[in-house]
Amino acid sequence: MTNKNQVTNIRATFKKIWGYDDFRPPQGEIVQTILTGKDALIVMPTGGGKSICFQLPALLQNGLTLVVSPLVALMENQVEELKQKHLPAALLHNELSRKKRKENLTAIQEKKLRLLYLSPETLLSPPVWEKIAEPAVEINAIILDEAHCLVQWGETFRPAYRRLGVVRKALLKEKPKGSKIAIAAFTATANPSAQKIITQTLKLENPQAFLINPYRSNLHLKVQIAWTAKCRRDLMLNLIKEHNQQTGLIYVRSRRQSEELAELFTTLNYKTAAYHAGLSPQERREIETSWLSGETQFVVCTSAFGMGINKPDVRWVVHFQAPLLLSEYIQEVGRGGRDGKKADALTLISEPTGILNPSDKQLRQFFLKKLEQQYDKAKQLAKKIPEQGEIAAISQQYKDGEIALSLLHSFGQIEWEDPFNYRRVDNSYAGKIEPGKDNQMNEYLRTKKCRWQFLLDAFGFREEVGRGGCGNCDNCLRRK
């Protein structure tokens, strides 16, 4: 347990760096859990102050804390804030100059850092791994920020996520006897199923769970049927006009859609921009900065935008098309109303038959077909790969080989011997790999009950809204 002097020291450091007299529940408990070397799973709503929960323990200890983060923009924002406070933090990613990368790798070796931000892929790259695995480099904790990305992306998009569970064991082999490394996973959205996947994949040991419900009474949820393509655009424009000059976000599901809509809005004299993974790092940073400063009123973006970017005064969020997963939806609407003031979240959907406007049905079929193709490749690879081998070699030999291995791992066919090698453990599922179908999002879009209550039920919280519902979503207002 943390003694009284330690608690005093924790609070004094917290006040000195961040200026607050005390923590918001359960920040203090999370800080103490990480400081005592215990594993933790934290589900905390966006804007809840989760970064402080792992930054403070890192600054109170002598060793290094690794923060595994999905996006360069997210890392840069947090590291820039820490550097402005003159705190020992750095980041590593493939967009850094060779000189800066070398400086940061040297800083690890010379023990000048307390926090190192990096992606799963960078963590598992040989030059970085060699440095952090050195016996003299003390690692206190591994933090997985935005841990829902492990569930959403780990199988079919960012396969390095699925290997994070063997990182601690591999590092401890290289460290002095008696070394301890805590693992803490932070996310704003994880239903009980996602919590189980995160816990199992990361091999968390009796993790302390901190589960805070995502309910925000100021965030008004609404779903509207768009009978035609023109109707969809008109409904979106109506909401933007209602929020005259106020900051917002429009989420779409493809690069082409973001560019087409941004072009439309530009012709209507709105200050906007298209944001997607096809832009250069510099273009993405410029759009983020312009939106944060208020120069750009809204961004037409794919799912990556906004993760970890704290802009309190977002007054509206439009889903031009609904995401496939409920966890994506709650992440994205969670960008709205972080200052506690009223914000609207509108989702537009096609009429159920798809006859008048088949775009939603076509989009869903496209993503499911792509997923099925990836599963088929994994099945074929399962018949060809050796009993054990190097992941890098399989990745070089077969297109999308690493993704196929991550799928096989999720179905229990292979195990990671360490972050760089696998071995076969089970052949019984070779012909039975099928893509899972998550119908929760569809159920949410069609539900007649309180939308917030539906979300809370789906994420494992009960009766947080109350029997009468939230009173603010479209379904509750309709009943009134």
CATH class of the largest domain: Alpha Beta
Structural class of the secondary structure composition? alpha/beta
Q: Given the structure, what is the number of helices?
A: 20
Euclidean distance between termini CA atoms: 51 Å
Report the β-strand fraction as a percent range.
15-25%
Overall structural domain count: 4
- Whole-number average pLDDT? 89
The counted number of beta strands is: 16
What would the CATH topology of the largest domain be? Rossmann fold
Taking the sheet with the most strands, its summary is:
7 strands, parallel
CATH homologous superfamily identity of the largest domain: P-loop containing nucleotide triphosphate hydrolases
**CATH architectural designation of the largest domain:** 3-Layer(aba) Sandwich
